[in-house]
Design a protein that fits this description.
The structure holds 2 protein chains of 2 kinds.
Chain A lengths: L1 H28 L4 H6 L5 H11 L5 H13 L13 H36 L4 H15 L2 H15 L14 H35 L2 H8 L4 H38 L5 H10 L3 H29 L7
Chain B lengths: L1 H15 L4 H4 L3 E6 L15 H7 L7 E2 L11 E2 L2 E6 L5 E6 L14 H12 L13 E8 L2 E6 L21 H7 L13 E7 L3 E6 L12 E6 L3 H10 L4 E3 L4 H8 L4 E16 L9 H10 L2 H8 L4 E3 L22 H10 L6 E8 L2 H16 L2 E8 L1 H9 L5 E6 L5 H9 L21 H9 L3 H17 L3 E14 L2 E2 L19 E2 L2
Parallel strand pairs in B: 1-10, 1-11, 14-15
Antiparallel strand pairs in B: 2-3, 4-5, 5-7, 6-7, 8-9, 9-10, 11-17, 12-16, 12-17, 13-17, 18-19
Helix pairs in contact in B: 8-10, 13-14, 13-15, 14-15
The chains are: A mainly alpha, B alpha+beta.
């Protein structure tokens, strides 16, 4: 398995290279540059030229690309074109907030999604199932920016339990959790919808399997049949998709962070697009891509642990 | 069961009981602005609203606008106690306050710092506003507290370029030399507040400068949050986590926020001018009849009603009336769809015409332009608009792609900057000296140049008025209106002055600003 993991990590390098190369050229094709974004209504032809020179954007694009790849190979992400701060520092500061959010959202999704999935499967075509299915449809269809504002309005304005601003003091666990709750709940509700639907459909498949019928025929307690025989098998496909859902959560963090003013990677990415901060954007996308790869790899590896029939070559 | 209850209580208590007793004693004002981040805290580079909001509390100029008003005729001493000028207006001598300290132990502010700051502001390599100081020949430090400025030629407002705005801010020579590029994120000034912390993409925190020469500020700390999302800003304000919030320049927003208990709505100037510039280098707008037809087709009263009576103000000329040199003695194009159609027919477009242009996604531009689009449609002018990102818009209009450009801006409140940037031949877009002359207009160069060096204030105003008359007569541009700045403030925050207009474009925090617990 170790060999497999190492091989997968090597395979990801060309994928990452392709992603960053694509992004590198794509963002430079889009009209509007960082100098114009920075100067705004005061931009004159001369001031744009000067600022571009300072930012190193006056060099031919292939030269810029060469410098970018060379720096990247040396582990250098460069400096933000706008703030002039090292990108690695900005990412190191922002990443924990995004990870907190993604993990928080997933924990809530798992805590509520799995029981909901089980209940709706066991009460198939009965009121709990109908309610569960309607709610999960609502959860899947609801955009996170709308859900976030709705939760903010109810749980922060009308019932003033939670804050709406920032990510809290990162060194203070209490402050961090306090500020995390609403954004994590926003993503958690959406995750609950995804996971509950997955668990429900897996459970329905498993409940029809011979070994479940055999377990019942043996006279086993229904709880044991459900939790030991059916659920364990139903969770196998769920665990595999959780990795993919983690990637969705990283994407979902973008708007959630904007709404709750959390200083995470998603917010950093949006601002980088807006300001045409090429260097920051490239770096954030590399980090996002690396995490998506990592989650997929972990899922693959977990799969073999959960289902011993799977072998890696 | 008991352990789970204990865990629940523990979890809730750490989540809810997050109040730091030390912070509870502090007087803090938090402001949220429509911004993603600062561009620069070096005042000679800061051009955005968030930059102004952060820079102004940290710096001073030789002279300043009164906190409540930007009337250039009421500029008062700031770091300079007094000044005198030569008869020809080319040599100005400033006598500095003694004992003014820079932040964080960077020593006393002296003539050397002033000389360094103004030379930095005038240098293209170290300032974004060097063009404003083109006429500055030299700066001399005569002694520790006396500075002499010599100009190559007379300029409309010497004091104007020395105020607490853009290149007029005085920086610490030692700090700039020591910090180099880092000065942009770690600035040293003389203002009532000094930088404590800059957290990219989140906020700037400034704390009281204990040595401020006008006395200690009443607030301990100010926080300036970057919050581009309007709903999030509003929620944070309603929740009480933010004390002052940048609003939307819309009547609906103003009306809604007036209903929020404990809220004061600030609507202040100078506002931003909304002017449609016609591209006279392109068909069909090279024909004055078409331009005049558009002027007659636009119903400005309807537009102002749409944008909101509280947040708009009339603009009849290219220069607002509250700018030095602004006038209302210009020809007017009354709203008349019939005249518009007649002019279009005369110009050879009896069935109307099609135009296409790009417009930014920013609502300050997009919403009024959508209204104009609808009004033009009524007279047969089909205006196709492609909505693009704001920075892309700024790039595209400078590439001369639009038949007409809606430009929203505020400038130093004298007529010269706007006339020079929008109507002077050297500013025509696409030329090496381009600024923002989108119309390709070149008929008032002589008036602009004459007014700049005219020593008699009345005559200068007359020349500026003549220039503005020509702009409207030639239908170079159509002034639509002025949109004012809108902020909401908690009533327990006392600014210490009555906000009427400010060049920082935000509710400015001064040493007199206070907050009641």
């Amino acid at each position: 398995m170790l060999k497999y993991a190492i091989r997968r990590m090597i395979y990801v390098l060309p994928t990452l290279w392709a992603v960053v190369t694509f992004v590198f050229f794509l963002i430079r094709i889009v009209p509007g540059g960082p100098a114009v974004a920075a100067l705004g209504s005061y931009a004159t032809a001369e001031s744009i030229r000067q600022l571009e020179e300072q930012m190193g954007l006056d060099k031919p694009i292939l030269v810029q690309y060469g410098i970018f790849l060379k720096d990247l190979c040396q582990g250098e992400l460069g400096k933000s074109l706008i703030t002039q701060k090292p990108i690695s520092q900005e990412i190191a500061r922002a990443l924990p907030y995004t990870l907190d959010l993604a993990i928080g959202g997933m924990v809530i999704g798992i805590l509520f999604g799995i029981p909901t999935g089980i209940i709706t499967a066991l009460r198939r075509n009965r009121p709990p199932d109908y309610i569960g299915r309607i709610l999960s449809l609502v959860g899947i269809s609801m955009p996170e920016f709308y859900l976030g504002i709705l939760l903010m309005y109810i749980l922060a304005i009308k019932l003033p339990f939670f804050p709406v601003l920032g990510g809290g003091d990162f060194s203070n666990l209490g402050s961090r959790l306090y500020h995390l709750f609403l954004p994590a709940l926003t993503l958690g509700i959406i995750m609950t919808a995804f996971i509950s639907r997955m668990v429900r459909s897996s459970m329905l498949n498993v409940l029809r399997e011979d070994y479940v019928r055999t377990a019942r025929a043996k006279g086993l307690n229904e709880r044991v049949v459900i939790y030991k025989h059916a659920l364990r098998n139903a969770l196998i496909p769920t665990v595999t998709v959780i990795g993919i859902y983690m990637s969705i959560l990283m994407g979902g963090s973008v708007l959630t962070e904007i709404i709750f003013s959390r200083p995470g990677l998603g917010k950093m990415m949006v601002f980088a697009v807006k300001d045409r901060d090429y260097i920051a954007l490239q770096s954030v996308i590399i980090i996002f891509s690396a995490f998506v790869f990592l989650f997929n790899l972990i899922t693959d590896l977990l799969y073999s642990l959960i289902d011993p029939r799977i072998e890696y070559h | 069961m008991r352990s789970s209850k204990f865990l629940l209580i523990f979890f809730v208590s750490i989540m809810v009981g997050m109040v730091n007793p030390a912070l509870a004693q502090e007087k803090v004002v938090k402001m949220a602005l429509k911004a993603s981040d600062i561009r620069s805290l070096d005042p000679h580079y800061g051009t955005t609203t968030i930059d102004y909001a952060c820079i102004d509390p940290m710096f001073n100029g030789l002279v300043r606008f009164k906190p409540e008003d930007i009337n250039p005729e009421k500029i008062e001493p700031d770091l300079a106690e007094r000044w005198d000028r030569s008869k020809d207006g080319l040599v100005w001598t400033f006598y500095l306050r003694k004992g003014v300290k820079f932040h964080k132990g960077y020593g006393e502010m002296t003539a050397e710092d002033v000389k360094f700051s103004l030379e930095k502001a005038a240098n293209k390599a170290t300032s974004g506003f060097a063009g404003d100081y083109a006429a500055l020949a030299k700066v001399e430090a005569l002694d520790k507290y006396t500075v002499r400025l010599t100009f190559k030629s007379a300029i409309p407002s010497v004091l104007g370029i020395l105020t607490n705005y853009h290149g007029g801010y005085i920086v610490s020579k030692r700090a700039v030399e020591e910090k180099g590029d880092k000065f942009k994120v770690d600035p040293i000034g003389t203002g009532p507040f000094m930088l404590k912390e800059y957290i990219p993409k989140e906020k700037v925190v400034e704390v009281r400068n204990p040595d401020y020469f006008r006395g200690k500020s009443k607030l301990d700390r100010i926080e300036l949050w970057f919050m581009p999302d309007a709903s999030s800003r509003e929620m944070a304000f309603r929740k009480g986590e933010i004390d002052i919030v940048e609003g939307e320049r819309e009547q609906a927003w103003v009306n809604k926020m007036r209903q929020v208990p404990g809220t004061a709505i600030e609507i202040f100037g100078p506002g931003e001018t909304l002017v449609v510039h016609f591209n006279m280098a392109k068909k069909p707008l090279d024909d004055i009849r078409v331009r005049r037809a558009i002027c007659h087709a636009i119903n400005i009263d309807e537009l102002m009603k749409f944008l909101g009576p509280d947040v708009t103000e009339k603009l009849v000329s290219a220069i607002p009336m509250n700018y030095l040199g602004g006038t209302d003695k210009v020809p007017k194009y009354e709203f008349s769809p019939e005249k518009a159609k007649k002019l279009l027919t005369e110009a050879g477009y009896p069935k109307g015409l099609d135009l296409s242009m790009v417009i930014t996604e920013m609502s300050d531009y997009r919403r009024p332009m959508e209204q104009v689009q609808e009004q033009l449609r009524r007279v047969g002018i089909n205006l196709k608009m492609d909505v693009i990102a704001h920075s892309a818009f700024h790039e595209q209009i400078r590439k001369d792609v639009n038949p007409m450009v809606l430009y929203v801006c505020a400038r130093f409140p004298t007529a010269d900057p706007m006339l020079t940037q929008f109507y002077y031949s050297k500013s025509i877009v696409g030329t090496p000296t381009a600024i923002t002359n989108f119309s390709h207009y070149n008929k008032i160069d002589d008036l602009i140049e004459k007014a700049r060096v005219e020593p008699d204030a009345k005559k200068q105003k007359d020349i500026w008025a003549e220039a503005q008359k020509k702009i409207i007569e030639d239908a170079v541009a159509l002034p639509l209106c002025i949109t004012k700045f809108v902020f909401a403030r908690k009533i327990n925050v006392d600014l210490g002055y009555e906000m009427r207009s400010t060049l920082t474009l935000v509710t400015t925090i001064k040493e007199t600003t206070d907050v009641r617990k």
